């Protein structure tokens, strides 16, 4: 990177090696900015141009409205683009008084102003685990003044904590300060009760800031410690990561008892399951005592255990109704283990006769891409057995594709979307349903499971 070109204030000469046409980018910026101001839009369409001061005001207004996001390219080590970035922040970053902040007070939605003498209202916007000073919570103050040694109220938890020290960070440097006022961000250390999204106040439990929206995790990875001694270390490390990154989640899968971490980052997906209740109904129709009452719970348990273990390729079985209407027992040899084992064999035999099918998790996709890349995305979805649902125009340049596809075919999909759209695409993914896998896929899964069992037996 040899330099940057200001696409708002165009210079007379264009440096050699410029990869885009600054004049075209300028026109797109102006056209997007004036959409936030009807008068400027009318003037722009009438005259084809507006003054640079009007462009600056239009960009600021668009930023406040959330319809335009300025992008600056910099190379810090080469000192390239730094002055342009700082000038852009001064010109296009709105002051706290220009932004409308909403807060819920006693169930009523109200606007708050960044007044220094107003009630204390703040929210934890970031959490960081510092290797030297432990947990650090960054508080954004929307109203009032926070002073060292103040006691603040934690909304929802209905508790109070003492703020023993206030820290101001500048890069890697930190400085202790005596107070922080509205419209500032300040940090506090070693307060375990504070978490990202928590609202603090000066005593009222009726004041609540809107929850911070975080992206949903896209992929998951099974975590398997090499030894039992590593279990605690891994758990502690993952807990710290989860505290720092609200889009990172850790849970233990109920089916496999394996620890699974989910995140937005591109992870190799080794194991991923959607939790769904085991749909099972057990009907006791025994009459005449053909199966003693003390063994009937063992029969039900045997069915449940075999359903969880699965019959075809080791996958869990769902949506089963079992009626127990007859059985035999031996006064000496019968016990709970024998009934559970007999039940499991019975279930496996009958289940195979019923010609079972394997279900696979399907996910709903919303893929936002430039309009000229829709064909590339849809072609790729077809190779993944994706099903197109519809396309929605969200702006003059971007479209959102709604589709459904098998989760198993979406490995590394974030990388694919980025590659096909030149880094301009994004997507969200949510569990939709379970559907039958195609016959050829079914056969491949069964063969792979059988080979895996043979390898384990050796």
Label this structure with key terms.
six-stranded antiparallel beta sheet; Alpha-Beta Plaits; four-stranded antiparallel beta sheet; Elongation Factor Tu (Ef-tu), domain 3; 458 residues; extended; alpha+beta; 10 helices
What does this molecule look like?
The structure is a single chain. This protein has helices at residues 22-33, 38-47, 52-65, 82-92, 228-244, 296-309, 336-353, 374-383, 413-420, 439-457; strands at 101-105, 108-112, 121-130, 134-143, 145-147, 151-154, 159-162, 166-170, 173-177, 179-181, 185-189, 199-201, 207-208, 219-223, 249-252, 259-263, 280-284, 320-324, 359-370, 387-393, 398-406, 426-436. By secondary structure, the protein is α+β, with helices and mostly antiparallel strands. Among the domains are: 22-94, no CATH class; 101-208, Beta Barrel (Elongation Factor Tu (Ef-tu), domain 3), CATH 2.40.30; 219-263, Elongation Factor G (Translational Gtpase), domain 3 (Alpha-Beta Plaits); 359-436, 2-Layer Sandwich (Alpha-Beta Plaits). The strands form 7 sheets. The chain has a 6-stranded antiparallel beta sheet, with helices on one face. Strand 3 (121-130) and strand 4 form a beta hairpin. Helix 1 crosses helix 3 (52-65) and helix 6 crosses helix 7 (336-353). The longest helix is centred in the last third of the chain and has 19 residues, at 439-457. The chain is extended.
